[in-house]
Amino acid sequence: MCLNSNISSLSFARFKRAHGGNCKFVNLFKSKVRALRNLISNISNEEELNETTRTIQLEIHITCKQVYKIKRNALIPNVTWWNRDFQRKKEESKALARRLQKSRGESATKLF
Hints:
By secondary structure, this protein is mainly alpha-helical. The chain has one domain. 62% of the residues lie in helices and 11% in strands. It is built from three helices and two strands, in the order βααβα. The protein has helices spanning 22-41, 46-67, 84-111; strands at residues 11-16, 69-74. Strands 1-2 form a two-stranded antiparallel ribbon. Helix 1 runs antiparallel to helix 2 (46-67). The longest helix has 28 residues, at 84-111. It is elongated.
């Protein structure tokens, strides 16, 4: 099963839940539960599962928007030029640096 997510924005909504509002969320969401249960029970293939999951997420998000305050946080964008080869080279250079530091430390203890 693979759920596709097409998030293209560089910000996301972070809801402030520290000051309550949970009872209000539950009361608002209770009215939508029966319809969502019907959607879940009528799933027959993967496309319907994806659509139902998206619908549930949207309903939760809409209810959260009604109840909680929003704090905007910028996402860290993925760097397109950094890849696995660079990561591997970085790890190799760190390993070599550690080996060099250990070898210098051992020779220094032998001298003194």
